[in-house]
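Render this sequence as a predicted structure.
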Amino acid sequence: MANWTLIHTARDRQEAELLRGQLEAHDIPTMVMDQRSSIYPSMGTIEVLVDRDHVLRALHLIHQSSEP
């Protein structure tokens, strides 16, 4: 199994899945971990993780997509 590294904490599931789609379109293995409580969804986090070998590339793509 890959060594996963947290690169982003999303506000909601939709944001996390959009980011996953962007990264996977560039052949970056990505995983979304929903750590929210099923009873209290506002408690907890949604994390986007990538294989450690792709961290720098993933962060570069995220930074590029956030620039105006």
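Summary. The mean pLDDT is 90. The longest helix spans residues 13-25.
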